[in-house]
Amino acid sequence: VIDATSLGWGTRVKGFIACFAIGCLCSFLGTCLLWVPKKRLTLFAVFYTLGNIASIWSTFFLMGPMKQLKRMFEPTRLIATTVMLLCLILTLCSAFWWRKEGLALLFCILQFFALAWYSISFIPYARDAVKKCISVCLS
Questions:
Q1: Coiled-coil ranges per the record (predicted)?
Q2: Distance between alpha carbon 17 and the CA centroid of its chain, in Å?
Q3: Are 89 and 83 in contact (CB under 8 A)?
């Protein structure tokens, strides 16, 4: 892991914490902006998306950017990564170009589920456990 970058471990942990904190702050700020009249869903979508992007970037500090990108596009994560990145882009398109707040909110929700599915792919057998829980709850 240390060979992946010229940054020391302490610096990389600080970078991870800073980037992750910025991501959490943006997501929290986006949620707070839901109460602002006019443009509330647009502001929420933009800040929520920026928060998710910053959170994803934070992991680049821990593993190194190239190793993280390779792991993102492994066959077991390919669909989750693709859906997550697509939803990030479509959320911003909905907010800025199409100006469809409902669509932006839908893409934020899909973004959340795709990022959660992607994140649990790093925990052994977590996806199987989630699938089993959902099947038990639905039956």
A1: none
A2: 15
A3: no
